[in-house]
Amino acid sequence: MSENTRTRKRVRPAGSQPGTRRRPERGKTPDQLRRTRGNMPRSSRARRRKRNRRILGFLLVLLVLAAIVGAILWIRYSPSKEKADLKEYYGVSNDDDLAVVLDNQLLGAGGKVIDNVPYIEYTVLRDNISDRFYWDSNENVLLYTLPNGNVSVQVGESTYTEVNEKKTADCTIVKTEGQTAYIALPFIKEYADIQYAQYEDPTRVMIVSQWGKTKQAEIKKDTQVRRLAGVKSPVLRDLKADEKVTVLEKLDDWKKVRTSDGMIGYVKANRLKNEKTTELTNDEYQEPEYTSISKDYTINMAWNNVTNTIANNSVLQLIAGTKGVTTLAPTWYNIADTDGNLKSISSADYVNYAHQSNMEVWAVLRDFQGGVDSADQVYQVLSYTSKRTKLINQVIADALQTGVDGINLDFELISTECGEHYVQFVRELGVKCRQNGLVFSVDNYVPMSYNAHYNIKEQGIVADYVVLMGYDEHTNNSEETGSVSSYGYVKDGIEKMLENVSKDKLIVGIPFYTRLWTEKSSGDFTSQALGMADAQDAISKAGATATWDKSTRQNYAEWETDEGTDKIWLEDAASIEEKMKLIHDQKLAGVAEWRLGYETSDIWDLILKYVN
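Above: the chain's sequence. Below: its structure in token form.
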């Protein structure tokens, strides 16, 4: 055989295994390949292949993890397209339910749609829109009191009476279902400072009752208003670019808004533009004007506790030692029974004596120490329109016959449940006093949360004067002994009253009495009311000495007895002067004193110093 055809024996590179073939390496000549393969151990190439496979696997794992994380982030942060259940959102379930959106508050199902007319439940109306509407569930009559009389509507009627004028509405004004009364919203709008619009799916009304400055904005581009501040919160509805919304609150990257059709929810802050403050007004409504009798002098009213007709004869003796008293307030009127009849011990002679002394007489009407003498009995009278009317008519008739100048209302047994009936009574009595030229004043406790149902704000509108009873800080029913009328108590009472009553209507009542307390070793205590002179006598008889108490701004004394420790916070010239300074510095309408006959003679010069 020739040299070219001779069979050559292949020599395996060191480290290679028989039966395996290697792929040619790209970019190298055969000689280079032979040299490379001859120099590289087989184990190195295997390790490199293994390492490459590990890197590739790691990269694949990273890619899978990145995909999973991306999916999780997408699921978590991508905007939800879920639509909110609007019936559940508005709190409606029945087809005739009417959802109520009032200003910036969703009230839920607060009414009904009856014969295509929106009706608002009375309690929703009273508690949220206007408490001047009054529903008498006993006699099925709706009232709204104007300065000169009542608007009166019977259930199921479209006709009504405004003071003395008959009028007709376009719908039935009041409907009832069981114990619930519903009032037509168009009728409410006639007497309340509101505007409203009705929308469907679900049926709802958006009522605006708050006027003045408000923030509004436009939608920058199409977006959604969501139930809560978050992209996963259900969508209430879509918002179109340039649509206007009312901005209610800022919350991080979101803003709480109210849409034009009464949806309250959240929009991303960067979806809003042209945010600005605008002025909302209601040109269709005119507030009723309540006229008041206002004296051109500072009131100095002395309550005269008259318990029977014979006591009227002592008026000359009582007023003989006074100075600067402008007004006498005898306790003449009580409620005789739960039918609303009046018990009177008034005296025309008393009035004549007072007038001869240049004093006016404001007869006091009380809800205690008469035939009616409990909170339940007072409720039985005031919760019926016919009984209130009877009582008021009898009071006015007696006042005119006797010749008094005003009525001083002193109702102290009003329960929370009776609150709205009492306030309606105040309105109605105020109307009758106004119509007959009688000064109308109303006595009140120091305002506290538990007596808020006396509605000082409404009294300040409908009455000529509002009287703060700046005493009874501690009584027989208190859990501890203490002052009848400390400086701080009176000061706090004045400040609270002035939140709702103008200065020129506020009269401050101060005490001419104090309490002598006896604290027993058992921890119990008793007390007795003492006039100024009797209080001083008690200290003198005990051989005690009164010292000035800076905290109450009163003279204080205590001493030991066989029964325990006696304590007394005095009402005297020093304590009265501290209270009179408050009244004078605040430029209030005047002062009232409980009661005539409890004072010492030096007090009148002191009061006169600050009154005039």
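The mean pLDDT is 93.
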